[in-house]
């Protein structure tokens, strides 16, 4: 015999069972998503720990290098571990004793190879800017000097990015294509206008002003590491003399600025000028570390500027992704 009460109970039971099934499926789905997010977070954290460990190792290497050498050049022997044909090598973390899993690569850029915008006078700035914006180089140089002198309470730039406030300076000229400052041609820097930064898709990394300028140096230019563009900015210098210095240091780095006096193919009056602005030692370095998890789908980046002039290297700038 049909029993309405029992049928109602059955319907309710089925409804409760259906609700619990949906709830279980929903919880399972969310738990699966949470586990994926947690796993991704742990992988990113592991990569970050690896990047930090690599940075600490580089600080120690730079400190030891300063104790051993009275000069710094592009071909320091310790760089062989990290570089191959002038480009960063991808290394296994275990190769250097780190416990974190994954791989990493490192770029070490000498800040003393750049022009310090807090120290450079108008003539030096003008010489340099002529390479990038020749039509208004002198005006730009004067605008930089005026801006530097007009800062309230601060007489120095705290970042090269402050130059974006300078009237007449084109952003494309300032940024170039190396937006992350790792000195490598990344896919987003060679795909035209598909993704920022916009580039000319020519397979060559075009650098901008920011890549030749700094606020983190002692003011003098390391003639062993400075690019021709920076060397040519020294009063009395030109592109031909800059290339001569670059060719000479390739065969034998300068161990002392006094060695410049023996260069007979550069006029003595120019050598006197170079001696005023030159050094062969460097204390400030930009270190760019990219650490990958094992599957290389997850990475973390740290950009730090390290000053090794102290008893213990000191980080004076830090940026992470």
The termini sit apart by 72 Å
Helix content: 25-40%
Computed CA radius of gyration, to the nearest angstrom: 28 Å
Side by side, the strands of the main sheet go 3-4-9-10-11
* H/E series: HEEEEEHHHEEHHHEEEE
> Number of helical segments?
7
Structural class based on helices, strands and sheet pairing: alpha+beta
CATH architecture of the domain at 41-111 and 283-320: 2-Layer Sandwich
The major pleated sheet works out as:
5 strands, antiparallel
Characterization of this structure:
The protein has 321 residues and is an alpha+beta fold. It has a domain at 41-111 and 283-320: Pantoate--beta-alanine Ligase, Chain: A,domain 2, CATH 3.30.1300. Helices cover 37% and strands 15% of the residues. It contains seven helices and eleven strands. The strands form four sheets. A five-stranded antiparallel β-sheet has the order 3-4-9-10-11.
